[in-house]
TrEMBL record, chain A:
The chain crosses the membrane at residues 50-69, 81-114, 126-148, 169-196, 228-251, 263-290, 310-327. It comes from Actinophytocola xanthii. One of its GO terms (molecular function) is transmembrane transporter activity. Keywords: Cell membrane, Membrane, Transmembrane, Transmembrane helix. Coiled coil: none annotated. It comes from the Bacteria. This is ABC transporter permease.
Length: 334, 508
């Protein structure tokens, strides 16, 4: 209840400040807000918003998983890209429906192993997870970029992209919504995360670790093992998201296509703001997806420069972060 | 009590203070008057509303009703900053120091002297040094706060108040974590401050402290004042009755235990820190049906002993639970092998303050029935389990879904102890079981521990309260500089011999 009110207030305050900023650049704030909303939810915008929301929600959940235990996975981009390129590599080799399954599995496995490797760097070698995940992300992205320029390059095109997957290795599309069956895979992942988090001993132990590392140690939780497992789940889901994206239109790996839309960072932001709670992360991810997709519409409709929409988002994020900080702020004497 | 003369209004006057948290009436029309230059003790059971009342005076909480007057002038604080400006300072229950910063930085934090807009470090150090000398504190301005023993940390907290020129000093259970010697040093400082015309409000659970330093005492029960009296000639039984509303047997004697088979065997346990042996070749045995007490001045290896037994600290030597050698095992396996553990630090180690009480109590029970069924945790079983512990150990809480931190300090302690006793593990290692716990509840906890022993469990009890060790233990070990330097059977243990051993003096 209080959470809702504070959040609403934060959004309102951000909107007010945003209106002032917009007015200062000569745009009409009301028109601008209208184009954001219409751009995000109008008949033309909604399909784009949803198509964008699927990977964002997937990545948000992927990054929320370790965050629940206070572990930050900064390597989502590498795991996402590695999952995608592995899925394409397998999908181009294995024909038929089996190819879909094999490609998805390859994506999950690649992401999981790579993230687990980053975790082992911390638990066995003492490299902080923040550093190991982030640094390992770059070689993964570069590897994919190399592969689609040379060994896996589409010979019929001059762009750095792979060949198109054969039609039977496409994820089924959902009517003309622009969505694929990947939506259900991501939704299933969210549901599994919610259940594991709330109802299983493993999820409970992750939360205990998030409450305090010393309390977790006292409770007998094996932190290294937990770290490796959570990172493997996180990377596995990131890899799945990568696979889902490339098994949808345009059915190939295009260099940079998973990076430019900022799935990873917007997802991380959503997970952070929601303190990694499963439902909160999903809601925050959907909200940011709508906002971003509305932002594109704003650019088209009002000539408001791209930078300003970024500023608007930043303002909103800061207000939301402050609101959640206030909600979580500890106060009161023992 | 110093009578306020008509021309000199009381330094602090709280009238009709009411504070409600949901269904809990934490303060119910509380009146409290303290004269300038008086040391006034505030007592009451855990959850009686002491911290709440003091937090209101310090501007941490807003009262729902009532007025605050300082030296006759009505004030209203919406933040501690305003209270500090008006001359009220508070040391909260548990500390709030920055461990990595120096004493000076901690003291001036938030009120730094500046020169041309920059921190004037020289002026800061000089001011702090001057205060340390004037009040004869044993502190060095440049020391890192995190390296100081608790007694000195307490003094840094007080220095913070003096630096901000507080006229009214509020200390919430300052002695809970102090050794008796450190507490005595604190009292010397407080008496000087009072002689200087400052007013001190002291929250404590220790009866002897009330009569030792307080000039007057106010007792709260269930948020209401049940007694205000000068401490001279005060009867302790009456005080206890005002707190609990019933007779408390303060000098209860417990029958000895009947020791059986060895339950916990420790051999040559050694913990090194740098090249110092903080735990030095300690061997001990606790049998089923026996309480073995460990006495000693804080910081002589007791904490390391407990941590090493629990598996939290790597150590050389062997630890056996019953027949089983657990030395190579981790915390989880040791717990599974039959070890329960109540740690000294309840805020960070023993509990998660931000998590729900029910979740705090589920820890350690979450991998077996009845909480777990078919691989899933059952929310209603988690709740029932918490309700059972809360009821059995008389934990007063706003509810099992409330965050742990909304429980009063003593009730957090009871909850943690309750959780560990409920494990029914053959061996319980317990450190400072009654720290911050009110006298009525102390008796309750002691009774529980003895009953646990009589049910055939082994207890290793580490406590800074010598009377507690003496009252409960079937055998007493004394630790000094990481070693066990003396052992006494129940009938030969007396305070004097133990006191000498604690100081490192052992009979040949
Ligand atoms: N933020 C809060 N929300 C809900 N209830 C609270 C909160 N803070 C305190 N309480 C409740 O108010 C009552 C009084 O608490 P308070 O901390 O003042 O007790 P206390 O006298 O200081 O006890 P102790 O001796 O254990 O420290 C308790 O029942 C406590 O659970
Ligand atoms: Mg208190």
């Amino acid at each position: 209840m209080r959470g809702l009110r504070t959040t609403a207030l934060a959004v309102l305050a951000a909107a007010l400040l945003g209106a002032v900023l917009l007015a200062a650049t000569g745009a009409n704030p009301l028109v601008a807000f209208e184009s954001i909303v219409v751009g995000a939810f109008g008949p033309d915008g909604l399909p784009d918003t949803l198509a964008y929301a699927v990977p964002v929600a997937g990545m948000a959940t992927a990054l929320a998983i370790p965050l629940r235990a206070g572990l930050v996975n900064l390597g989502g981009e590498g795991q996402l890209v590695l999952g995608a390129i592995s899925a394409v590599a397998v999908g181009l080799q294995v024909p038929g429906v089996l190819g879909i399954v094999a490609a998805l599995l390859a994506g999950v496995l690649a992401g999981a192993l790579y993230a687990a490797f980053a975790a082992v760097c911390e638990t066995a070698l003492g490299v902080p997870l923040l550093v190991s995940t982030l640094l390992l992300s770059y070689p993964a992205v570069s590897l994919a970029a190399y592969l689609v320029r040379f060994p896996m390059r589409d010979p019929g095109s001059s762009l750095p992209q792979s060949e198109q997957l054969p039609p039977d290795v496409h994820l089924p599309a959902l009517a003309d919504t622009g969505l694929t069956a990947g939506l259900f895979l991501v939704l299933a992942a969210v549901v599994v995360y919610a259940v594991v988090d709330a109802r299983t001993p493993a999820g409970f132990e992750a939360r205990v670790t998030g409450w305090g590392p010393r309390f977790a140690q006292y409770a007998g939780i094996d932190r290294p093992r937990l770290t490796v497992r959570l990172l493997a789940c996180s990377g596995g889901l990131a890899g799945l998201v990568g696979a889902v994206v490339v098994l949808g239109f345009p059915y190939r790996f295009i260099d940079g296509a998973l990076i430019t839309p900022q799935y990873t960072w917007i997802g991380l932001l959503a997970a952070l703001l929601a303190a990694a709670s499963p439902l909160g992360t999903l809601l925050a991810a959907l909200f940011f997806a709508a906002l971003t997709s509305g932002g594109f519409a704003l650019e088209r409709a009002t000539q408001v420069p791209r930078e300003l929409t970024a500023v608007l988002q930043a303002v909103l994020i800061i207000f939301l972060a402050a609101a959640t900080g206030l909600l979580r702020g500890r106060k009161g004497a023992a | 009590m110093t009578q306020p003369s008509p021309d000199q209004p009381p330094a602090v006057s709280l009238r009709g203070i009411v504070k409600r948290f949901g269904d809990v009436l934490a303060n119910d029309h509380v009146d409290l008057t303290v004269a300038a230059g008086e040391i006034h003790a505030l007592m009451g059971e855990n959850g009686a509303g002491k911290s709440t009342l003091m937090s209101i005076l310090y501007g941490l909480l807003r009262p729902d009703a009532g007025t605050i007057e300082l030296a006759g002038r009505e004030v209203s604080f919406d933040s501690p900053a305003r209270a500090i400006a008006a001359g009220v300072g508070m040391v909260q229950q548990g500390f709030a120091l920055f461990d990595s910063m120096s004493v000076v930085d901690n003291v001036v934090y938030g009120a730094e002297p500046t020169r041309r807009g920059l921190l004037d470090r020289r002026a800061a150090t000089a001011a702090v040094r001057e205060l340390i000398e004037r009040h004869e504190l044993r502190l060095r301005p440049g020391d890192r706060a995190g390296d100081l023993p608790v007694g000195s940390r307490q003094q840094v907290e007080i220095l913070k108040l003096l630096y901000r020129q507080a006229r009214v000093l509020v200390l919430d259970e300052p002695t809970a974590v102090l050794t008796p010697a450190e507490a005595d040093r604190l009292f010397v400082v407080l008496r000087e401050l009072a002689a200087d015309g400052r007013t001190v409000l002291l929250v404590t659970h220790k009866l002897h402290e009330v009569t030792a330093v307080g000039e007057a005492v106010t007792v709260l029960r269930d948020g209401r004042v049940t007694m205000t009296a000068p401490t001279r000639g005060l009867d302790q039984g009456r005080l206890a009755a005002a707190m609990t509303g019933r007779e408390v047997d303060l000098d209860r004697v417990y029958p000895p235990g009947r020791p059986g088979a060895e339950a916990l065997t420790v051999r040559n346990l050694t913990v090194r820190r740098g090249d110092r042996r903080v735990l030095d070749d300690v061997s001990l045995t606790v049998r089923a049906g026996e309480i073995v007490g460990v006495a000693g001045v804080a910081g002589n290896g007791q904490t390391e002993l407990v941590a090493a037994i629990a598996g939290l600290l790597p150590a050389d030597g062997t630890v056996r639970l019953g027949e089983r050698d657990v030395h190579a095992l981790g915390v989880r396996e040791r717990r599974a092998a039959g070890l329960a553990h109540v740690p000294e630090d309840r805020g960070e180690v023993g509990a998660a303050p931000t998590a729900r009480l029910a979740d705090n109590l589920a820890v350690g029970f979450h991998r077996r029935p009845p909480l777990l069924r078919r691989g899933l945790l059952r929310p209603e079983a988690v709740r029932d389990h918490a309700e059972r512990i809360v009821t059995r150990f008389g934990v007063r809480a706003p509810g099992v879904s409330a965050p742990m931190r909304t429980l009063s300090g003593g009730n957090q302690q009871k909850a943690i102890l309750g959780r560990e006793l409920a494990q029914e593990a053959p061996v319980l290692v317990v450190e400072q079981p009654t720290r911050g716990v009110d006298i009525g509840a102390v008796v309750g906890i002691h009774t529980e521990l003895v009953a646990y022993r009589d049910a055939g469990h082994a207890i290793l009890l580490v406590s800074a309260e010598l009377s507690e060790v003496l009252g409960l233990s079937d055998r007493v070990l004394v630790m000094y500089e990481g070693r066990v330097v003396a052992e006494f059977a129940k009938d030969e243990a007396d305070a004097e011999a133990i006191g000498l051993a604690m100081a490192g003096v052992t009979a040949p």
